[in-house]
Structures are given as C-alpha cells and as structure tokens.
Design goal:
Blueprint lengths: L2 H45 L2 E3 L5 E3 L6 H8 L2 H47 L10 H15 L9 H7 L5 H10 L12 H28 L7 H19 L12 E9 L2 E8 L7 E6 L16 H21 L7 E7 L10 H8 L3 H19 L6 E7 L1 H11 L6 E5 L23 E4 L6 H5 L15 E3 L24 H10 L11 H8 E4 L2 E4 L4
Parallel strand pairs: 5-6, 5-7, 7-8, 8-9, 9-10
Antiparallel strand pairs: 1-2, 3-4, 4-6, 11-12
Helix pairs in contact: 1-3, 1-4, 2-3, 3-5, 6-7, 7-8, 9-14, 11-12
Length: about 550
C-alpha cells in the first residue's frame, strides 16, 4: 500500500471515529434529557393517580378510576362539587401529560432515525477526512455527525409544542434558537420569551439574505424601482421598524417589555405579532387585529403601521388598567397584542384600488388558520389562565371572525368598523365563533364610511344589525365625561366612549359597558333628504 493511500485511509478513519464520538456524546446528553422529561411526566401523572403505559397512553392507575365518583355519591353537595372539580383537574392533567409524552416520543423517534443515519453513513465510509491530519479529520467527522443530529422541527400540535424544548438537550436547544430560529417563529405553543429570543436572532439572518438577494438583482440589471427590488426594500424597511419599535432599553421590567411573538415574510413585506407586556402572566390579554392598508413599516400618512398600532395598544392598556383599578382589581395585570402576521389588502396603492382589494375575502381566509393557532398559543402558554379578548377593526374584523371560526379560542370578541364577518358568501352565524352569546359585541361609530360598503352586504350581512351580537355605544357620554367617536379611525381616541367599551370588554367588566344609544346615533349619523334618510360619512 502506498503512503498516500495509507494516509488517506487513516484520515477517513479518523473522520469516522470523530463522527462516532460525536454521536455517543450527543446520545448521552439526549437520552439523559429524555429520561428526565419522562420521569417528570410520570411524577406528574402519579399526583393524579395516572400511569403512563409503554406505548405512551395515560391511563388511570389501579384502584383510582372511581374514587371521585364514590366520594361524590357518599357526601353532600359540597362533596359532589369537590369530586367534580377533582375529576376535571384529573382530565386536564391527563390531556397535558399525554401531549408531553407525545412530544417525548416524537423526539425519541427523531433521535433513533438520526442515530441510524449516522451509523449507516459511518459503515458505508461516508465520513471522509480528505487527507487531512488526524485531528482535523476527527473535527470534520464530528461536525458532520453534529449536523445530522440536530434538533427535530417542532411538532405541529400546540400542546405538544409546550413541552418540545424540554425534550431537547441544551446543545440542541441552543442550536435551534441561534442557528435555525425561523423554526420557532410560528410555533405558538413554545414559551413566548424563547420565541421572542429566536425571532430577534432570525431578523439579522433574514436581513443578510435579503441584502444578498437585492445585490444579485442589481447585478442582473434590475433597477431600483423594479417590483422585485421594491419588494425587498419593503421587507428591509419592515425589519428596521420592528427592530426599532420592539427594542427594550436596559432595565425595562418584564411587564413593560415588548415581545415579538411571530414573524411572517410574504411576497412584498414582513408581518409580525407584537405584544406589550408579558402575555404568559397577564390576567387579561387583548389582541387587536387591524384592517386594510396596514403595514409593519412606517406609513405616517395613513397611520396604519406598527407605530400606530403600538400607540393604540398603549391607549387600550391604560384604559384596561383604569377599569381594573376602578373595580377593585388593581392586582390583576394586562397585556395587549397586535396581530399583523399577514398581508393586508390595499397596501401601498391608491384609495380606490385599496377599497377594491379590501372587497376580497382572500386575505382574511389565508390569515385565519395562523390567527387561530396564535390565539391557541396565547391560551396554552398562560401560566394561570387568562381572559382573552380579540378586537377586530375594519377588515380585521373579518379576519378575526374567520380566525375564531377556524378554532381560535377567545373569551370575548368585539367587531368594530366592520364590513362583515363571513367570507364564504353565506349569512354570518354568530354561534360559529365559539364565543358565548353574552361576550360577542359589535360597535359602529356615527358617520362611519364603512356603512357604504356594508349596504351591499359583502361579507354575510350587516354586523351592527345582527341580533346575536350586543351593540356597544361609541357616542358622547355626558355621565362619564366621554367624547364620541365618528368616522372609521377614531375608536381608540382617549377619553372616548368607544375606547372605554373596548377596555370594559377586554377586562371582563360587563357592569362598565355603555350600551348602544340608538337615538343619539340616528341624530348624529343621518341627514334627511326629499328621497329619504341617508347616513353622513366622516372621512
């Protein structure tokens, strides 16, 4: 055998040994993590008299299945209520433990597949040293195995996502957050603070990719006003705004921080979900879904941008806190969220074109599944359970309705300035929202130009006339010294009846709600002509 061939074989074997060493090290860490996660799940199950079977099922332990029923039968009403509560807690624990076990099993299956792939590659001589020194070849082999042993993608199920990171070794978790953060941007069951960290890591990576793409286009001769180049510039502007507006200065307390809960690039922009305050600990979470022409990047002329959204959230936040204080619930906390994780109709186009595009249900239909999952994640990641309200304005009311119909959970909902609530062409059915009849609201300001569109019933009927929605007032309220809102964009004016009502619903304060004043609305909204009564519009 020649010296060069011997040297090459030694180099290849060093690479193979390096790969096997990396596999063994990773397996030790991973098995330890999975064992700890499974032990925790078993301990939690034992607290409720449950056991985990070999195939991952969570069943009643011996002699525990009828304990609650027997206790309820032998005792009086108090014992019956206690037994019912114990049974509900047990079933909730069963659901949570089942999701945890499924997450563990999914990661274990991925570990097995990765191990098989690495061993097969090693057996087939797939790890090569390319004539490197033993040390360099070993490092090359370790790096190759490490790439093959990376963390699996998060599970689709929101409940399983809650436990997904607990099944990963520390090295895998860190690799995921820093090297592949995009995988967590829409994994809404994962701790929002971890998701925020990952998204903030993704932004500079995304920016670098966009700059490379723009440079490639310019080298190919595309002018700065070319649609493809403009689309990239819009995305870069969106990222700039996100970084600027979501910045938390040093020392900012958790309850005042802004969090990036989602990030979604689309063809000519980037959407996001941004929270003010910590949604995991807040007692009351209000999610605002804005309407047409909304962009992440600055749009000062229209005010339909992230800066404007965060200003609305701040006003709503203050109103909610005022309501909690006035009702003796100052200890309860609030968080507000803007859902902008979609492409909105009417972006960057003349008004008439924007209105025509807003007449299409496509944007709401495409966003609805993601909104539903985002809401599900806000419920799932709440540490003590929250009161979750969704506030849909303008076209955002249609998106909100479709998101709730797609399974998004909410305790209350307000549709305001709404063109309609059903995209299918069928009449709107309020029961399809999954929200109780006492917590479904609609609001329409006087001189609201959306009335012109609603007159044609483009989306399943006129929301303000729906008997299954409680109408809130938006006019002047002398008793509480509140101003009235008119037109399409004054619902969040401070010291207004409309903002008061939004805050009352969002804090679960029905006694504070100001009901609809039909007489005042009619006087302010309509003018009489020889041909009948017609609404005025305040643009």
């Amino acid at each position: 055998m020649s010296f060069s061939r011997l040297s090459s074989e030694i180099s290849d074997r060093a690479a193979t040994v390096g790969a096997i060493k990396e596999l063994v090290t990773s397996l030790i860490d991973q098995v330890k993590t999975l064992k700890n996660a499974l032990d925790d799940a078993r301990d939690h199950a034992a607290e409720f008299g449950l056991v985990i079977t070999g195939d991952g099922a969570v069943i009643d332990g011996p002699g525990t299945s009828d304990v609650g029923a027997v206790a309820g039968t032998l005792g009086g009403p108090a014992a019956t209520a206690a037994a019912s509560a114990a049974k509900a807690a047990k079933e909730a624990a069963r659901t949570e433990i089942t999701a945890r076990v499924h997450a563990i099993l999914a990661t274990a299956a991925d570990v097995e597949a990765d191990t098989t792939a690495i061993l097969t590659k090693a057996a087939e001589g797939g790890f090569t040293g390319d004539g490197m020194s033993v040390e360099d070849a070993s490092r090359k082999g370790r790096a190759g195995a490490d790439r093959m042993f990376e963390a699996p993608v998060p599970p689709r199920d929101i409940e399983q996502q809650k436990h997904y990171l607990d099944t990963l070794s520390p090295e895998q978790r860190q690799e995921l957050i820093t090297e592949r953060p995009y995988l967590l941007a829409e994994a809404y069951g994962i701790d929002p603070k971890v998701r925020d960290e990952a998204i903030r890591n993704w932004i500079p990576q995304l920016r670098e990719d966009l700059l490379d793409d723009r440079a490639d286009l310019r080298r190919l001769g595309h002018a700065s006003n070319d649609d493809l180049v403009v689309a990239i510039d819009n995305k870069l502007a969106d990222l700039d705004t996100l970084v600027d507006q979501a910045h938390n200065p040093p020392g900012t307390p958790d309850e005042l921080k802004r969090y990036l809960l989602g990030l979604k690039p689309y063809e000519d922009g980037i959407g996001a979900i941004v929270a003010q305050n910590d949604i995991t600990t807040a007692d009351h979470v209000a999610v605002h879904v804005p309407g047409m022409t909304t962009t992440t990047r600055d749009n000062p002329e229209a005010g339909t941008d992230l800066i404007g959204e965060l200003d609305k959230l701040s006003k709503l936040d203050r109103q909610m806190e005022d309501h909690l204080t006035s009702t003796g619930r100052r200890h309860e906390t609030v968080a507000t969220v803007t859902y902008m994780n979609m492409k909105f109709p009417g972006q960057d186009m003349p008004v008439l074109n924007a209105l025509a595009e807003a007449g299409q249900p496509t944007f709401a239909d495409e966003a609805a599944p993601d909104l539903a999952r985002a809401l599900e994640g806000m419920k799932a990641t709440s540490t003590e359970g929250n009161h979750l309200t969704v506030l849909g304005h303008s076209y955002g009311s249609l998106t909100t309705s479709e998101g709730l119909q797609a399974g998004g959970p909410a305790d209350a909902v307000v549709f305001y300035g709404s063109p309609g609530l059903e995209s299918s062409g069928e009449p709107f059915d309020a029961d399809s929202l999954g929200v109780g009849p006492d917590n479904r609201y609609v609001m329409l300001a006087a001189k609201e130009p959306i009335q012109a569109a609603v007159a044609f019933d483009p989306f399943g009927g006129r929301p303000q006339d729906n008997p299954d929605l409680t109408r809130l007032d938006a006019g002047v309220n002398v008793e509480r010294d509140l101003v009235g809102s008119t037109g399409h964009s004054q619902y969040e004016v401070e010291e207004s009846t409309s903002l008061w009502n939004l805050g009352a619903v969002a804090t679960g304060s029905p006694d504070l709600i100001i009901g609809f004043d039909r007489q005042q609305f009619d006087q302010q909204n309509y003018h009489q002509t020889p041909f009948g009564r017609f609404p005025d519009y305040d643009f």
